[in-house]
């Protein structure tokens, strides 16, 4: 079984990935937050920094692209080939309203004919750059019945991997995953299959492995944000000690302080991190509330140290 860290926009950039890999080894692949095509340039400075090989030296990174235009996908893929990336991931899962109204992310699933044409052109184009395509998708827009046709389309192409989050766009991240749709997929695709969705404990992952032994990989997002040593635990390690959690926090904070301008912006990033990480400290509710209200880095550091030193 392979273990992947899902991309989360604004959170799992290269600073986070490197801190996580250093403290909690065992993640086979990290996926970049989605890249979007720009009219006059391949990447903005933030995107370029995130995918630079020198910023991802000790991890395996798969860049993800969000678009519904094959020419834009191939243009960005060509740029990524120059940086040495041999596999590119297509985002067909993002449920954000600002994304789907433009027919991108899970909004693209409403147009299966257009998606078929897109995949045909992209797969032929990637042959020229000797790159592979993987897809991260939901099972449809508003009805699970859409999945049969969508899977037939995916099966026609030589995808490196099909990463399936068995929810509809209308589910967002609520409701239970449609495990019947996942079971249907397991029995009807020749593609390497990765499961994504609601894996938050070692028991969740072991149950999936037992129920669907054909699954080659799992992708974990919020579960790893809440329990950063989740993959280590699945592989038999005990829960991370307090000093490891503190080291992870310190690497992350130092990384942001060294790359982000202004205490306010650093605080924003760290507070977003704590909205997940704080679940490791249920007995520290009062301190977590104080941390959320911190308005300067010095105050933040004192509160965070108090939480971590007694973990």
Automatic annotation (TrEMBL):
Q: Which organism is it from?
A: Candidatus Fusicatenibacter merdavium
Write down the required cofactor(s). Answer: FMN
Leader sequence residues:
none
Q: Which SUPFAM superfamilies match?
A: FMN-linked oxidoreductases (SSF51395)
Q: What is this protein called?
A: tRNA-dihydrouridine synthase
**InterPro entries, A to Z:** Aldolase_TIM, DUS-like_FMN-bd, DUS_fam, tRNA_hU_synthase_CS
Q: What family is this protein classified in?
A: Belongs to the dus family.
The alphabetical list of record keywords is: Flavoprotein, FMN, NADP, Nucleotide-binding, Oxidoreductase, tRNA processing
Where do the DUS-like FMN-binding domain residues begin and end? 6-244
What is the role of this chain? Catalyzes the synthesis of 5,6-dihydrouridine (D), a modified base found in the D-loop of most tRNAs, via the reduction of the C5-C6 double bond in target uridines.
Molecular-function GO term, any one: RNA binding
What's its top-level EC category? Answer: oxidoreductase
Q: What is its EC number?
A: 1.3.1.-
What positions constitute the catalytic site? 94 (proton donor)
Query: Per its UniProt entry, which superkingdom is the organism in?
Result: Bacteria
Binding residues annotated for FMN, in chain numbering: 64, 136, 165, 221-222
